[in-house]
């Protein structure tokens, strides 16, 4: 059923208070006028007090919600909608306003002839306990693909421009998570720029979404420079990611064919072996923005604060979707687990909430979660089915080390035929990808100081001889991690 029809059915059945949750003021006005066009409408809003609904002209001198309701209680209101806008601001910590709203509700319920319905409009849920049983909630969903397609084509028709199917498809994906109003604004700006509407307007959409992220202060937008070619090795993980990216970019068609929406991947394993690098390369491969979430920093001091932060962060990611959401070093939030501390309980609940959202989400957010030390994670969080796949990243094997040397030498334009990659790989057992990168950097620095001489295998071998691989430095920890990964039978990324 459509929202206006559902609202009409409730109004006709004498439900006293309908609470519409929406971010879109313009859209909600149209929605309300569609409910029952013949009913009269009075509005209260925070800025101007009691006003006419159609032109927002004040009906009396400004007064707060309690004052306005006092006035309405004395009025003859038959066949009206009473719209209370910014309801969360008007009612929060305002016992007098709540009491008067309850009195008005009682009056409405006592006389069915009155035909009055109160409509609370707000961007967030606002249900005072005293009014709980009278309120029915309606959440206005953001436009879906079909609705977005209609908005774009209607605009295009109005401006007399054509949008090619490819551009339309891309825009539909990019506009997801934005309100009707925001979409309209962006199409308008795109059109004003060059008289056309098409795929190149996606830049504007990304800028708008980046604003949303910055304003939230809960997520970080990561700049992308790496792609899958920058990863040496991990030959099982890379094709898996390519496959998921193909599903994502062909989304509506894949879904219609019966493909399940990709949820995300968990990558665990040794530090410095390419987990963060993979998160970044994933976003590049998907061609989507990368948002980084730090669960540790969301843990608030007050009861319920962490949950509220998590809910907001998820809402932001959904608003920015399609995107890749990277939850970095998830184990940090669980530090101290087992000691029974309240912190770990909150972390478990918080991550549990996150995973439930991940499984039920309908928006296009692909989650990449990374962790070094999974001994701190509650095992049920790693259970199969939560993520599409859990991968274990080990220290690179000889072949992978060769590939990693190649990536880093090539990146710095120092890969010459004289360099013996095989020899370097053989000499670096137990070195991490990050260790290998440091060796290359150090070798180049030394070659520069040595009269800008060409980088040689010998120089790199000298650097190797003077460094200790991470695998040795962290010997005990590494064994502990390995045992745990084997015990949990986690799939290898290589
Ligand atoms: P972590 O697994 O701790 O997240 P990172 O991905 O941050 O490790 O690795 C640190 C750096 O080491 C990367 O930015 C990259 O330059 C280098 N590196 C690590 N693994 C690889 C790899 N497999 N291929 C190429 N470079 C790598």
Topology of helices and strands:
Elements: H1 3-12, E1 17-21, H2 25-35, E2 40-45, E3 49-52, H3 65-73, E4 80-84, H4 87-91, H5 95-110, E5 116-122, E6 135-139, H6 145-159, H7 165-174, H8 180-194, H9 202-216, E7 219-222, H10 237-249, H11 251-257, E8 264-269, H12 275-286, E9 290-293, H13 295-298, H14 305-320, E10 323-327, H15 342-360, E11 365-371, E12 389-393, H16 398-411, H17 421-426, H18 433-449, H19 457-465, H20 470-473, H21 475-487, E13 491-492
Parallel strand pairs: 1-5, 1-6, 2-4, 4-5, 8-11, 8-12, 9-10, 10-11, 12-13
Antiparallel strand pairs: 2-3, 7-9
The structure holds adenosine-5'-diphosphate.
Spell out the CATH superfamily of the largest domain.
P-loop containing nucleotide triphosphate hydrolases
- Kindly report how far apart the N and C termini lie: 49 Å
Largest sheet: 7 strands, mixed
Shape: elongated
Overall SS class: alpha/beta
Q: What count of helical segments does DSSP give?
A: 21
Whole-number count of domains: 4
Care to count the β-strands? 13
Give the low-pLDDT segments: none
Fraction in beta strands: 5-15%
Name of the CATH class of the largest domain: Alpha Beta
* Architecture (CATH level 2) name of the largest domain: 3-Layer(aba) Sandwich
Radius of gyration: 29 Å
As for the CATH topology of the largest domain, it is Rossmann fold
Explain what this protein looks like in three dimensions.
The protein has helices at 3-12, 25-35, 65-73, 87-91, 95-110, 145-159, 165-174, 180-194, 202-216, 237-249, 251-257, 275-286, 295-298, 305-320, 342-360, 398-411, 421-426, 433-449, 457-465, 470-473, 475-487, and strands at residues 17-21, 40-45, 49-52, 80-84, 116-122, 135-139, 219-222, 264-269, 290-293, 323-327, 365-371, 389-393, 491-492. The mean pLDDT is 88. α6 (145-159) packs across α7 (165-174). The two termini are 49 Å apart. A hairpin with a 3-residue loop joins β2 (40-45) and β3 (49-52). The protein has 494 residues and is an alpha/beta fold. The longest helix is centred in the last third of the chain and has 19 residues, at 342-360. The chain is elongated and about 95 Å long. The chain has four domains: 3-139, P-loop containing nucleotide triphosphate hydrolases (Rossmann fold), CATH 3.40.50; 145-216, Helicase, Ruva Protein, domain 3, CATH 1.10.8.60; 221-393, Rossmann fold (3-Layer(aba) Sandwich); 398-473, Orthogonal Bundle (Helicase, Ruva Protein, domain 3). Bound molecules: adenosine-5'-diphosphate. Adenosine-5'-diphosphate (ADP) binds at residues 231-234, 271-277, 370, 404, 407, 433-434, 437. Adenosine-5'-diphosphate binds next to α12, α16 and α18.
């Amino acid at each position: 059923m459509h929202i206006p029809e559902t609202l009409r059915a409730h109004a006709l059945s004498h439900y006293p208070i309908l609470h519409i949750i929406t971010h879109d003021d313009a859209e909600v006005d149209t929605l309300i006028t569609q409910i029952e066009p013949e009913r009269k409408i009075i509005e209260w809003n925070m800025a101007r007090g009691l006003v006419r609904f159609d032109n927002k002209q004040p009906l009396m001198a400004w007064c707060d919600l309690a004052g306005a309701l006092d006035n309405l209680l004395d009025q003859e209101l038959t066949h009206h909608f009473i719209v209370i806008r910014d309801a969360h601001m008007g009612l929060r910590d305002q016992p007098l306003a709540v009491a008067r709203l309850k009195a008005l509700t009682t009056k409405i319920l006592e006389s069915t002839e009155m035909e009055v319905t109160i409509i609370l409009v707000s961007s967030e849920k606002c249900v005072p306990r005293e009014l709980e049983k009278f309120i029915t909630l309606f959440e206005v969903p953001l436009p879906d693909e079909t609705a977005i397609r209609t908005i774009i084509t209607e605009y295009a028709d109005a401006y007399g421009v054509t949008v090619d199917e490819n551009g339309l498809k891309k825009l539909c994906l990019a506009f997801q998570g934005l309100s009707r109003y925001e979409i309209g604004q962006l199409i308008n700006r795109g059109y004003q720029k060059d008289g056309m509407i098409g795929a190149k307007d996606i830049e504007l959409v990304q800028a708008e979404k980046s604003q949303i992220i910055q304003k939230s202060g809960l997520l970080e937008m990561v700049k992308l420079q790496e792609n899958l070619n920058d990863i040496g090795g991990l030959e099982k993980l890379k094709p898996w990611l390519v496959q998921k990216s193909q599903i994502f970019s062909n989304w509506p068609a894949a879904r219609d064919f019966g493909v399940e929406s990709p949820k995300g991947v968990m990558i665990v394993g040794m530090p410095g072996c390419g987990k963060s690098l993979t998160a970044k390369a994933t976003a590049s491969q998907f061609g989507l923005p990368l948002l980084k979430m730090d669960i540790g920093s969301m843990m608030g001091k007050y009861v319920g604060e962490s949950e509220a932060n998590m809910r907001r962060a998820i809402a932001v990611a959904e608003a920015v979707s399609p995107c890749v959401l990277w939850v970095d070093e998830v184990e940090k939030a669980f530090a101290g687990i087992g000691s029974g501390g309240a912190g770990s309980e909150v972390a478990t609940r918080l991550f549990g909430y996150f995973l439930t959202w991940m499984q039920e989400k309908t928006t296009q957010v692909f989650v990449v979660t990374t962790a070094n030390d999974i001994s701190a994670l509650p095992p049920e969080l790693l259970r199969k089915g939560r993520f599409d796949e859990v991968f274990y990243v080990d220290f690179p094997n000889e072949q992978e080390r060769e590939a990693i040397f190649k990536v880093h030498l090539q990146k710095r334009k120092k890969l010459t035929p004289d360099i013996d990659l095989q020899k370097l790989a053989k000499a670096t057992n137990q070195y991490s990808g990050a260790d290998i990168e440091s060796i290359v950097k150090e070798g180049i620095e030394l070659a520069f100081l040595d009269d800008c001489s060409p980088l040689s295998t010998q120089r790199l071998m000298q650097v190797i001889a003077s460094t200790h691989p991470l695998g040795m430095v962290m010997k005990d920890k590494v064994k502990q991690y390995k045992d745990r990964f084997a015990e949990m039978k986690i799939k290898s990324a290589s």
